[in-house]
Amino acid sequence: MKSTFKVRGGVPLEGRVKVAGAKNAITKMLAASMLSDKPCFFSNVPDISDVEVTVKVCEEVGMQVDWDREKGRMRVITKEIKNTHIPLCFSGANRIPILMMGALLGRTREPIIVPTVGGCNIGPRPIDFHVMALESLGAVVEHRTIKKESAYFAYSPDGLRGSIIDLPYPSVMATENAILAGCRAKGKTVIRNAAVEPEIIDLILFLQKLGVVIYVDVARTIYVQETQFFHEVEHEVLTDRIEAASFGMAAIGTKGRVFVEGATQADMITFLNKLRKINGGFSVKKGGIEFFYQGGLKGGLHLETDVHPGFLTDWQQPFVVLLTQAHGYSVVHETVYENRLGYAHTLKEMGADVELFTQCLGGRPCRFSSRNYEHSLIIKGPTQFCPGKINIPDLRAGFAYVMAALFAPGVTTVSGWHYLNRGYEHLIEKLQQLGSSIEWMEEPDSAEGEEVLEDRSSIEAKCSLSCP
Ligand code: EPU
Question: Which CATH class is domain 23-238?
């Protein structure tokens, strides 16, 4: 698998790019489709490795999948649950296996065995809220260690029954797990302090088509009614607001102009407001948003990440890179993850003037105040990035580094493509199409029998063929 590419920076991005379907929506819908034994047809399915891994996990359970990757269409059906033991080799692959608990608990009395979940390395990412939500619906969730590998065992000895779930924090996937379990739990399930990200609303739309009575009430409360009869569904996956914003920021930062087809204003309001505050140009048009450089970017911004409708934590890293090009000081406070600013050390090495702080800067104290995590930063701009060699540590920091490379005059070598491939469809080709000078580097042949270092997700995906 290719893993390294080089970018010659300083070239403005120009043209038009089409945003793919949202990774954080389709992967959840694939899990949700397993609530039913009817076929589901998806369009706008992104051709990314996180979908690949999710498909493999679902196939382990019994899903049949036809995926036309070129057309972005997928037909899935899970006529019966063949296996409720997600192989340990999926441990660390992505975070979707954890949703198998919510999706399958009401469909089988077999224990659902799920290896400890992965995803990007951006903090400890516990699943205590998931466990609490499922237990309040009558499930038993135990953490056990088998042959030094740990896994969750979830079962519902007396079946699931609806209840009121009070989430301590509006976690995206804990909300999704509670929704999925609620679809087959007796009576009504009420999820209070739920997350209401656009991807969750898209999941709700999908579930309503599937036959579920489900709605979002005031104050982020979600109601789900027990469902016994399911329908065939056709669903177009919403477009990826993270990819859309990423191209927008890259266009502005390179002093270019890009029409991002499929960017949806309604899902990007907070982002667009922040962009406007720093003098980033955008124009909402039919079918997308055009992003353009309209003169010097202004700093002086305070940006705080939050749950929806706040500023999405996945926009934070590329926005920080954009702020390095703005005149003056800006302050960023990451309140969703305690450990999502580590990438800034590499930006410093590349020439950015960035300082990290453990204090909550600029806003209300968050959950991480006095906990000694570097979760705030101050940026002074503008600075010029120096080209060099960089290693991507996770998906969103990965795009931030690509932006830094696009801004740096000269050639930067970037390795760790597999992280980007988890969530950005055909990124290299799309950037080439926008005029950037970016190309793959030759990989040295690995000696026979020697494992090439690659991301866990691709290793897990391959190993699913050999796992029991
Ligand atoms: N949390 C707990 N306990 C739990 C669950 C969450 O303490 O049981 C904490 C987390 O540690 C974190 C916070 O709650 O501090 C929010 O985490 P959340 O559960 O909302 O995150 P997630 O559902 O695991 C999804 C996306 C992330 C995105 C976040 C926030 C997927 C597959 N992942 O993660 O996306 O950053 O919501 O919006 O949907 C990405 O796409 O690159 C990505 C990391």
Answer: alpha beta
Within 8 A by CB and 6+ apart from 17, the residues are 247, 258, 259, 260, 261, 430, 433, 434
**In the predicted structure, residue 459 carries a pLDDT above the cut 60:** no
Place of tokens 């996937």: 173
Index of the ligand 1 atom closest to the CA of residue 123 = 11
| Cα 182 to chain centroid, rounded | 23
> 120 an active-site residue?
yes
What residue's CA is closest to ligand 1, atom 6? Answer: 171
Segment 209-233, tens digit of pLDDT: 999 999 999 899 999 999 999 999 9
What percentage of the chain exceeds 90 in pLDDT? 85
Q: What is the pLDDT of residues 30-71, one digit of tens each?
A: 999 999 999 999 999 999 999 999 999 999 999 999 999 999
Quickly count helices (H) and strands (E) in the chain.
14, 23
Most informative mutation of 29, 129, 169, 307 for ligand 1 (most atoms within 8 A of CB): 169
Task: Give the residue-averaged pLDDT of 298-320.
Answer: 98
Supply φ then ψ for residue 210, to 5 degrees.
-70, -20
**Does the beta carbon of 337 lie inside 6 Å of ligand 1?**
yes
In tens, the pLDDT along 382-440 reads 999 999 999 999 999 999 999 999 999 999 999 999 999 999 999 999 999 999 999 99
- CATH topology agreement for domains 4-20+239-456 and 23-238: yes
Furthest-apart CA pair in the chain: how many Å?
Answer: 64
Distance CA 120, CA 25 (A): 17
CA pair distance 95, 91, nearest whole angstrom: 9
Quote the crossing angle between the two packed helices 269-277 and 241-253, to the nearest 10°.
10
Check whether domain 4-20+239-456 has CATH 3.65.10.10, yes or no: yes
